[in-house]
Amino acid sequence: MAKHDPDLSLLFHALADPTRRSMLTRLAETPARVTDLAGPTGLRLPTVMRHLCVLEEAGLITTSKDGRIRTCAIVPEALDPMRTWLDEQRAIWEARLNRLDAFVMNVMKESEK
């Protein structure tokens, strides 16, 4: 059975929603106020706050509050566990495909004899 990493699951869950991915894309440019993030979505503020809560729980963003203004900032290094996992999966599948290619080439050579 595969090793279950709850942090990795949180990351994939957080990135599974297009609204949250859009927010992260916006935050990659510069930190933004919650109201600025809410505007393009067309969602009500409580819904946007739930999306931001998911991103924060996954460690993808941090929030700070100055008076009544809440500002969000991306945490790019939070994606490192996901990048590591994807790199491991890529290596596994490339090795499998290389073995399959070698097998097919061997079968083709033998069938030519």
UniProtKB/TrEMBL annotation:
**One GO MF term:** DNA-binding transcription factor activity
Superkingdom in the source lineage: Bacteria
Q: Where is the HTH arsR-type domain?
A: 1-94
Which Gene3D superfamilies does the record match to this protein? Winged helix-like DNA-binding domain superfamily/Winged helix DNA-binding domain
Q: Which SUPFAM superfamilies match?
A: Winged helix' DNA-binding domain (SSF46785)
Q: What is this protein called?
A: ArsR family transcriptional regulator
Write down the species.
Answer: Pseudaminobacter salicylatoxidans
Q: What is the lineage of its organism?
A: Bacteria, Pseudomonadati, Pseudomonadota, Alphaproteobacteria, Hyphomicrobiales
